[in-house]
Design goal:
heterodimer; A: 171 residues; Alpha-Beta Plaits; two-stranded antiparallel sheet; two-stranded antiparallel ribbon; 6 helices; B: 616 residues; alpha+beta; Aldehyde Ferredoxin Oxidoreductase,  A, domain 1; Aldehyde Ferredoxin Oxidoreductase Protein, subunit A, domain 2; Aldehyde Ferredoxin Oxidoreductase Protein, subunit A, domain 3; six-stranded mixed beta sheet; 24 helices
Chain lengths: 171, 616
């Protein structure tokens, strides 16, 4: 079963444990500046949102790379940067519509999420379940279910959805 | 290890900036943060100096676990001599800037002297510069924060800043970081402004990597996080209600100081409680609380992010206050609320916003307004003094106008900025000041929680709940329940809490973890990260050493055992209602035993034996 990171901003508290776990696993230091996942804070809206690569099927970054330094990990489906091959041209960072491939000045290469080979540290480190690693076909299942449950036709015996589960659209 | 080993020394008088190696022996003796910076202060500053003179120094300091994955490992402290108390000041803050400073490669920054013109310090890893602050001097913290972020084109830069109150000489000005977190108490912001230092802006991308035993560290921090998650307070009450979880609890036990501590229960506590912050309001159906929020690395997330009702009189035509920001914590809700008798949650939230916007300590501010209200009621302060302001207990308008004036350092706000002690002395009623060593009380009435009376009286920074939070034991039963109404055993309890807390405050961790963690949970995390051996026993010894070092500074600053006391009201006027009805705080009964187990003389001086034992 192919798996994907599921991000639920409404559960995020902005603690940055994910960023530290990511940088520690990939770089051996606690360093948000080198994390492949980033939590954005929208202070005046009281909102935090973790954000990282969604591992596009037809990945722009991969197709744009002139030296074929971005390859598919057949086990996880992640698009990984081969550091030895990457020449640091940054074309992939331009190609990615989501901004989740980033140039890392210290190494002169680009970095992006590789799902930690199928055991993503960010998900393990998240204390609130805002980042989970689930069946890639089901990342929106619970959100659909929450809305479905709210539909007027739903039998009255169902419990109403918890407010937190639907807030993602309200905010 | 875990320390970066680098100290940044900034001389504001001549503009020189130097890097120097951290004193490793002092790190071994005092761990980091509170303890370590106090050691530097004691070695470098004559305790008798005027706190607002160039001879005082101001130290921003991280702990060894700051910037790591240890839960809550993002704290930093500001250590200096306090202009409010004349004692040592050590104010601790969360948010993100502590970790950022560490990531930039610095254990601490020592500010010396005084700049001729307003400046701010910009740190980008090893590159540190003093830059002119003309554009931000005279601005609020919130405004200055926006200007600096735009000027440096760096949304990830973290900023600590003082507001207009500090510039105007308010004696309990805070240093606000990340817009709504603060090194809040004892006027550390006043000292910063006195040096003409407006802000410190930090960007660090070096990371924290030199962990002694990384594998063991990950295991120890993981185990610690599980303990926090499984605990009813840190895993349930705090994320849901914040520290405001305490409002109803403390009120019910008759330990809620009300109307300048004349009473011990607030009839409207339920209207300003953590639960009330969840209630949808009539106007827009939204609750006061928008979300909870964590500081760096914190898996508890007790922070409150709130909004004010847009139709409320305080913000009706002021859309600049319609956004979400740091809301009411328990101490602020109490000081702005029950101590002034105000039960309007939107007015309190507005007051909180102003405290953050311009950097004032909401505890000292609220308690000073409460004292002013009592003076007004007595006729000692009149409308002539207040500029027409009617200061009656329970008046939300009086509170919010006071907040506006004090935050901006204008009009009667300048007098309120002196703090309760100086205000009450000025108007002829020194007994009405609810302070210890000149610092205002926090939200636990010691008539209903006896141990807290001793903790307040002996706190090295004046009245403070965070120097020895025996509430844990006396109210919540952590680590074991003691009777809040008795004095027996309290000296031992207070000492144990004071020493353990001094160690926690020196680690980079948040003291709120101790609702769930004991030193046995903390020591393995420090031990895995830091050079040397760090057992619970050694941490307690470090804590005791820090406590005595702070005490020594205070004694040399001119304080004596006579200052280890409580206002007459708490010693003579019995609680009027509740479980503690008829009781006063019997601090005199506890003091001799406390001095004895501290190894101090009968008049509170540190004996040579104690100095020798602790290596002072």
């Amino acid at each position: 079963m192919a798996m994907a990171l599921k991000l639920e901003p409404e559960k995020c508290t902005g603690c940055l444990q994910c960023e530290m776990a990511c940088s520690y696993e990939n770089e051996g230091v606690f360093n948000p500046a080198k994390s492949r996942i980033k939590v954005f804070s929208f202070h005046e809206e009281g909102k935090f949102a973790p954000y990282t690569c969604t591992q596009c099927e037809e990945a722009w970054c991969m197709h744009a790379c002139p030296v074929e330094a971005i390859v598919v990990d057949m086990a996880t489906g992640s698009k990984n940067v081969l550091e030895d091959v990457c020449v640091g041209c940054k074309v992939c960072t331009i190609a990615c519509p989501f901004g989740t491939v980033n140039y890392e000045p210290d190494s002169g290469k680009v970095i992006k999420c590789d799902l930690c080979g199928g055991d993503p540290w960010c998900a393990k480190a998240c204390p609130t379940g805002a980042i989970t690693y689930v069946d890639e076909a089901d990342t929106t299942y619970e959100r659909m279910r929450a809305w479905a449950q709210q539909a007027p036709s739903a039998p009255a015996r169902f419990n109403p959805p918890k407010p937190k589960e639907v807030q993602v659209f309200e905010r | 290890m875990a320390w970066t080993g680098n100290v940044l020394r900034v001389n504001l008088t001549n503009g020189s900036i130097k890097s120097e190696p951290l004193n490793k022996q002092w790190a071994r003796d005092y761990l980091g943060q509170r303890g370590l910076a106090t050691k530097y202060l004691v070695e470098e500053v004559d305790p008798a100096v005027d706190a607002l003179s160039p001879e005082n120094k101001l130290i921003m300091v991280t702990g060894p676990l700051t910037g790591t994955m240890a839960s809550t490992g993002g704290r930093y402290s500001v250590v200096t001599k306090s202009p409010l108390t004349g004692a040592v000041a050590c104010s601790n803050s969360g948010g993100y800037i502590g970790a950022e400073l560490k990531m930039a490669g610095w254990d601490m920054v020592i500010f010396e002297g005084r700049s001729e013109k307003p400046v701010y310090l910009h740190i980008e890893n090893e590159d540190a510069r003093l830059l002119p602050a003309d554009e931000i001097w005279g601005k609020s913290v919130w405004e200055a924060d926006g200007i600096l972020h735009r000027r440096h084109q760096d949304p990830d830069m973290r900023i600590s800043c003082v507001g207009r109150a500090a510039e105007a000489g308010n004696l309990y000005a805070a240093i606000v970081n990340d817009l709504h977190r603060a090194a809040g108490r004892s006027g550390v912001g006043t000292v910063m402004a006195s040096k003409h230092l407006k802000a410190v802006a930090v960007r660090g991308s070096r990371g924290v990597g030199n962990i002694k035993d990384p594998m063991r560290f990950m295991q120890a921090t993981e185990a610690g996080k599980k303990v926090l998650a499984d605990n009813a307070v840190t895993g349930g009450g705090l994320p849901q209600y914040g520290t405001q979880v305490l409002m109803n609890v403390i009120n019910e036990m008759g330990a809620m100081p009300t109307r300048n501590m004349r009473e011990v229960q607030f009839e409207s506590a339920h209207r300003i409680s953590g639960e009330a912050m969840h209630e949808p309001r009539e106007s827009d159906g939204k609750p006061n609380l928008t979300t909870n929020a964590a500081c760096f690395a914190c898996t508890i997330a007790c922070g409150r992010i709130s909004t004010i009702d847009q139709g409320h009189y305080t913000v009706k035509n002021k859309p600049e206050y319609w956004h979400a920001s740091g809301g009411l914590e328990y101490e602020a809700a109490w000081a702005l609320g029950s101590d002034t008798g105000v039960d309007d949650i939107d007015a309190l939230t507005y007051g909180m916003f102003l405290c953050n916007e311009d950097g004032i300590d909401p505890i000292s501010f609220g308690a000073t307004v409460a004292a002013a209200m009592e003076l007004y009621e007595l006729g000692a302060i009149t409308k002539d003094d207040t500029g027409g302001l009617v200061l009656t207990f329970g008046s939300a308008e009086a509170l919010t106008t006071c907040a506006e004036l004090t935050a901006r350092g204008e009009g009667f706000g300048k007098e309120l900025g002196l703090g309760s002690k100086r205000l009450c002395e000025k108007y002829g009623h020194p007994d009405l000041s609810m302070t210890v060593k000149g610092q205002e009380f926090p939200a636990y009435d010691p008539r209903g929680i006896q141990g807290m009376g001793l903790a307040y009286a002996t706190s090295n920074r004046g009245a403070c709940h965070l120097r020895g939070y025996t509430v844990s034991s006396e109210v919540l039963g952590i680590p074991e329940k003691t009777d809040p109404l008795v004095t027996e055993g309290k000296p031992e309890l207070v000492k144990a809490f004071q020493d353990a807390t001094a160690a926690v405050d020196s680690s980079g961790l948040c003291v709120f973890t101790t609702f769930a963690w004991t030193l046995d949970d903390i020591a393995p995390q420090i031990d895995a990260a830091c050079e040397g051996e760090w057992s619970s026993e050694y941490l307690l010894q470090v804590g005791e050493r820090i406590w005595n070092l702070e005490r020594d500074f205070n004694l040399r600053a001119g304080l004596t055992g006579k200052d280890d006391t409580l206002p007459k009201r708490l010693r003579k006027d019995a609680a009027n209602v509740g479980p503690a009805q008829g009781m006063v705080n019997d601090v005199e009964a506890m003091m001799p035993r406390y001095y004895a187990i501290r190894g101090w003389t009968e008049d509170g001086r540190i004996t040579d034996e104690t100095r020798q034992r602790l290596g002072l």
